[in-house]
Amino acid sequence: MSIKTITITGAAGQIGYQLAFRIASGQLLGPREKINLKLLEIPVALDALNGVAMELDDCAFPCLETVTVTDNASVAFQDCNYAFLVGAKPRGPGMERSDLLIENAGIFSVQGTAINANANRNVKVLVIGNPANTNALITMSNAPDIDPKSFSAMMRLDHNRALAQLSTKTDSHVTSIKKLTIWGNHSTTQYPDIHHATVKDQQAIDLVSLDWMKNTFIPNVQQRGAKIIQARGLSSAASAASAAIDQLRDWTFGSAENDWISMAIPSDGSYGISEGIIYSFPVICSEENYEIVQELEMNELSESYLKASEAELLIERKTVEHLL
């Protein structure tokens, strides 16, 4: 049986900490798949990361073979099959989004180079650290020998949030909702779209009002992260880790039958979205690959949301184009 190598960056942080134990317990690849876990941090966080490694040892997970603690990206990505890029500088007081992009661009360019030089050629890279879409673009651009389809930014958290909101509104379980989509950027310009979604095989758009969709549902999903920070004083951690595992597991093993998921991936021009950006589309996953769902009808409202998020991503790309 082959042993899979899984890398987590920023592994001493809240999301990385949540991820490490869930992955080590088998929640990503299953309890029979043996894994080597490689944990990457900046030098000042290595003591804390060693504590995480000690806890992992103490859990005695049957599928966990080895744990490597390092501040060296080349070591962290050696023979990597799956990478969760969590570590990123957080947005501080008074920082603009463009400032955050520039601060994090160097981190992800270095990691892209290390992935290119050291990772398995069939690696799957999921970027979680914000601004996730453009950080994924930077990483991908610095790994020219890896298939661009190996890189994705996490939109599953937004997708799950939208499922929960629609579930509550329609008094239904999340498992009864199909074909919901998050389009665009992992930001407040994202577009949670229920026009093609069903709830218990009924059209979701027929079960809610236009006013609720535009003025409650969409803003609630777009701003959910900020509301969680306001409520708990910290950003989403457990839900982000859960969503990251959901996205990479579906990407590896396939999405549910008669359904699709939302993934931020390199745009191929579908739906008129510019190439050269990482944009969230509805995708169907199978055999460790994905395909964008095509030919969905778009009304004027939906098209305006799609273009607004595209415009933001094009601006972000312009900000970091010297690293691409």
Produce a short descriptive summary.
The protein contains 10 helices and 14 strands. The chain has helices spanning 14-24, 46-59, 73-76, 97-118, 132-141, 156-170, 210-222, 224-232, 238-253, 300-320; strands at residues 4-9, 35-40, 64-70, 82-85, 124-127, 151-153, 177-178, 181-183, 191-193, 198-199, 202-203, 261-266, 278-286, 289-292.
Describe the structure.
- By secondary structure, this protein is an alpha/beta fold.
- It is 42% helix and 19% strand.
- Helix 1 packs across helix 9 (238-253), helix 5 (132-141) packs across helix 10 (300-320) and helix 6 packs antiparallel against helix 7 (210-222).
- It contains 10 helices and 14 strands.
- The model has no long low-confidence stretch (mean pLDDT 95).
- The longest helix has 22 residues, at 97-118.
- It has a 6-stranded parallel beta sheet.
Helix content: 40-55%
Rg from Cα: 19 Å
- Say how many strands there are: 14
Q: Encode the helix/strand succession as letters.
A: EHEHEHEHEHEHEEEEEHHHEEEH
Q: How do the strands of the widest beta sheet line up side by side?
A: 3-2-1-4-5-6
Question: Segments where pLDDT lies below 50 for 5+ residues?
Answer: none
Mean pLDDT: 95
Cα-to-Cα separation, first versus last residue: 38 Å
Tally the helices: what do you get? 10
Estimate the strand proportion. Answer: 15-25%
Largest sheet: 6 strands, parallel
Which class best fits the helix and strand makeup? Answer: alpha/beta
Shape summary: globular
Task: Summarize the helices and strands and which ones pair or pack.
Blueprint: E1 4-9, H1 14-24, E2 35-40, H2 46-59, E3 64-70, H3 73-76, E4 82-85, H4 97-118, E5 124-127, H5 132-141, E6 151-153, H6 156-170, E7 177-178, E8 181-183, E9 191-193, E10 198-199, E11 202-203, H7 210-222, H8 224-232, H9 238-253, E12 261-266, E13 278-286, E14 289-292, H10 300-320
Parallel strand pairs: 1-2, 1-4, 2-3, 4-5, 5-6
Antiparallel strand pairs: 7-10, 8-9, 10-11, 12-13, 13-14
Helix pairs in contact: 1-9, 4-5, 5-10, 6-7
